[in-house]
């Protein structure tokens, strides 16, 4: 097959990889960690033409855990829900050190292709590295980046900074350190083998625990139906056994006068706790490793204070992820986008400083703010999707006061809102006394 590639780009679709993501064991994980440690010992003396930093089998283990364990998939989706979305922007810094959002430029980085970039940076923390391919082509329909790709990790040697066409074979290859590929390719390398290195052995152990738990349930969770008959004929006994076996489907069983049917139920002995406790332990460890808290991944807490403490830890962990993304964006991605002419110079990638809170706390915050500051209707609509009119509790102290003003007998017993509802105007407004004027 003839390779077709443009200047400064190799065709990642021609990469040849082998995927082994089934029947993974802890012994395989131990071998791959040992192999990685051997490479770390000799990488100072490595020579060109030798594939040493091959992590393809380690990636097989990571992918196997992602494909076969629902809990870690849910944890990753929870993490991405806090990273992606409309939380980030392109902004400029003014003289006071405040970030001013550039709305037009921010719209260019809010789309499916740019989400791939952020997802790839996050996955670098999990897998240990990510190679991003950012092409300068613009989609004529959307006006945004047309193509961003995450290059297959099995063909990337991150510490050797090389991409090989065939997994485990040096030639042909592409050197990411050369000037040719630096414009379109970004290698995000954390320097270790990723957070999945701590979760993989736990999930592999959990997989066998779940299998044993299923066998246990099949053996002991189903009741045993015991039939007795006074007849000594084998044919009569077989007939009764067949009737009992078919009773679940037929709903009816007819026995002789002296025949007996007894259901032997399983006596609970908490033996299943051995399996459920191990499964719960693994789920909590995985959640704590990636999110910082098991309660943020669906776990239950015994009291409100514990939940709030876990929420604070979760938000701190998300802040660390966002800070990592901001650094990679401003050091690697944004300069390339500027060189491509996609965005203007002087812009920085920044996550918004809005407080992450639940709906109840958000309503309380806006209730506190609107009692002291005037909030525009557009802000309420943007935050809650509710169309509102003029704010009622906005006070006006201009002009002279009438009988109901500051100089009246108002003791401020009622709130400003209650005062407005009763008298039809705010405190301090100038209201004429029509009764005294008629005297």
Order of helices and strands: HHHEEHHEEEEEEHEHEHHEHHHH
Helix content: 40-55%
- Give the structural class: mainly alpha
| Sheet of most strands | 3 strands, antiparallel
Shape from CA axes? Answer: flat
> In DSSP terms, counting alpha (H) and pi (I) runs of 4 or more, how many helices?
13
Strand content: 5-15%
- Measured distance between first and last alpha carbons: 105 Å
- Given as residue ranges, the uncertain stretches (5+ residues, pLDDT < 50) are 396-407
Number of strands: 11
What integer is the average pLDDT?
81
Task: Give the strand order, joined by hyphens, for the main sheet.
Answer: 2-1-11
- State the domain count: 3
Taking all Cα atoms into account, the compactness measure Rg is 34 Å
From the structure above, extract its key features.
439 residues; mainly alpha; 3 domains; three-stranded antiparallel beta sheet; 13 helices
Short note summarizing the structure:
With about 450 residues, the chain is mostly helical. About 45% of the residues lie in helices and about 10% in strands.
Write the layout of secondary structure elements.
Layout: H1 26-42, H2 56-68, H3 70-83, E1 88-93, E2 99-101, H4 103-108, H5 112-127, E3 129-134, E4 148-150, E5 156-157, E6 162-164, E7 173-175, E8 185-189, H6 196-220, E9 224-228, H7 234-250, E10 260-264, H8 273-290, H9 304-339, E11 348-351, H10 359-370, H11 377-384, H12 416-423, H13 434-437
Antiparallel strand pairs: 1-2, 1-11, 3-4, 3-8, 5-6, 6-7, 9-10
């Amino acid at each position: 097959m003839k390779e077709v590639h443009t200047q400064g780009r190799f065709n990642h679709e021609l990469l040849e990889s082998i995927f082994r993501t089934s029947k993974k064991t802890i012994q395989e994980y131990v071998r791959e960690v040992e192999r990685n440690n051997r490479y770390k010992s000799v990488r100072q003396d490595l020579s060109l033409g030798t594939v040493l930093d091959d992590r393809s089998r380690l990636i097989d283990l990571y992918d196997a855990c992602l494909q076969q364990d629902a809990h870690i998939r849910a944890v990753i989706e929870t993490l991405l829900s806090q990273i992606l979305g409309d939380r980030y922007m392109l902004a400029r810094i003014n003289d006071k050190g405040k970030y001013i959002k550039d709305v037009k430029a921010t719209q260019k980085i809010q789309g499916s292709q740019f989400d791939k970039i952020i997802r790839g940076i996050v996955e670098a923390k999990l897998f240990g590295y990510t190679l991003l391919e950012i092409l300068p082509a613009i989609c004529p329909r959307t006006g945004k980046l047309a193509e961003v790709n995450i290059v297959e990790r099995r063909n990337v040697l991150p510490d050797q900074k090389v991409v090989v066409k065939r997994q485990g074979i040096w030639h042909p290859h592409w050197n990411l350190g050369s000037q040719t590929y630096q414009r379109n390719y970004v290698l995000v390398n954390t320097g270790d083998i990723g957070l999945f290195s701590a979760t993989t052995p736990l999930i592999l152990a959990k997989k066998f625990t779940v299998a044993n738990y299923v066998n246990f349930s099949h053996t002991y969770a189903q009741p045993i139906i015991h039939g007795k008959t006074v007849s000594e004929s084998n044919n009569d006994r077989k007939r009764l056994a067949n009737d009992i076996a078919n009773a679940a489907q037929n709903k009816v069983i007819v026995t002789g006068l002296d025949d007996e049917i007894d259901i032997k139920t399983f006596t609970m002995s908490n033996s299943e706790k051995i399996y459920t406790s191990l499964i719960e332990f693994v789920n909590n460890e995985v959640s704590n490793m990636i999110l910082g808290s098991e309660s943020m991944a669906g776990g239950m807490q015994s009291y409100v204070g514990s939940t709030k403490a876990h929420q604070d830890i979760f938000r701190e962990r998300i802040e660390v992820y966002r800070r990592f993304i901001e650094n990679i964006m401003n050091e690697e991605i944004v300069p390339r986008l500027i060189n491509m002419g996609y965005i203007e110079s002087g812009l920085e990638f920044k996550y918004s400083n809005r407080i992450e809170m639940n709906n109840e706390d958000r309503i309380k915050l806006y209730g506190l703010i609107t009692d002291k500051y005037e909030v525009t209707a557009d802000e309420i609509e943007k935050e809650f999707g509710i169309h509102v009119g003029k704010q009622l509790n906005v006070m006006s102290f201009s002009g002279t006061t009438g009988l109901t003003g500051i100089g009246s007998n108002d003791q401020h017993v009622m709130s400003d809102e209650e005062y407005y509802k009763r008298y039809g105007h705010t405190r301090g407004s100038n209201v004429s006394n029509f009764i005294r004027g008629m005297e």
